[in-house]
Design brief:
Layout (H helix, E strand, L loop, with lengths): L2 E6 L2 H12 L5 E4 L9 E4 L2 E6 L28 H10 L11 H18 L7 E3 L14 E9 L2 E8 L2 E2 L3 H20 L2 E9 L2 E4 H10 L3
Parallel strand pairs: 1-4, 7-9, 8-10
Antiparallel strand pairs: 2-3, 3-10, 4-9, 5-6, 6-7
Helix pairs in contact: 2-3, 2-4, 3-4
């Protein structure tokens, strides 16, 4: 097993470093037998920790990677996506055909933890929980399992964990949305935004994206 560690200044920097490293010929790859894209080849880090010093930026599109126009490749996330994504992440609105949204599980916890961290910042108990026992029966259980939090050095640090995580498009979109949530909570608590440290045992690309990744990284 290889434990990967990435230190980045911002989300686009983290995305490119992860993309470059996942193209290592020795990265674990396998054929999916259960879950999304059965039969497809997945290239996956054994485990990765990504430290991002300054995840949040305004306008929100600055948090999204841009592919140089001369490469003729699509950006991994379209401009304006984060504004649309925030209702999914930070409100409890759920369509009748949806088993869950991240917001339906996260939103009810936000105000409680803001109050707790305002009154007693020196605690290790603050976690926004996404996972529930019933998830084992879902066809498509949540990829984001929790966002651990703590106040450190007068700033709010976020520690999201993903059980499975699409590197090409999901990684930057998810982290940008989580960074907006982090900024919102920090403002409500009355402190500054700190670093974000994300981890996963399932950060991956699929075979059909591998060629795009190789072109982007000039590999």
């Amino acid at each position: 097993m290889k434990i990967e560690y990435i230190k980045a200044t911002c989300i686009p920097d983290a995305w490119f470093q992860c993309l470059y490293n996942i193209l290592d010929p020795e990265v674990y790859h396998y054929t999916i037998e259960h879950g999304s894209y059965i039969g497809e080849q997945r290239y996956e880090f054994d485990f990765i920790t990504v430290y991002i010093q300054h995840a949040y930026a305004e306008p929100y599109d600055l948090m999204l990677p841009k592919v140089p126009s001369h490469m003729g490749l699509p950006d991994p996330v379209t401009e304006g996506y984060i504004e649309q994504y925030m209702s999914y992440l930070m409100t409890d609105v759920k369509k009748p055909d949806e088993d869950y949204t991240y917001g339906s599980r996260i939103a009810p916890q936000i105000s409680g933890w803001i109050n707790t961290l305002k009154k007693t910042p020196n605690t290790n108990q603050a976690v926004l929980q996404v996972a529930q026992p019933i998830d084992c029966y879902l066809v498509d259980p949540p990829c984001l399992r929790h966002i651990d939090m703590r106040v450190k050095e007068g700033t709010l640090w976020f520690y999201p964990y993903f059980r499975s995580w699409d590197l090409w498009g999901g990684f930057p979109a998810n982290l940008a949305g989580i960074a907006v949530l982090q900024k919102f909570m920090a403002d409500e608590i009355g402190i500054e935004v700190g670093p974000m440290i994300a981890s996963s045992k399932g950060l991956h690309i699929y075979k059909y994206v591998k060629e795009l990744a190789e072109l982007r990284c000039n590999k």
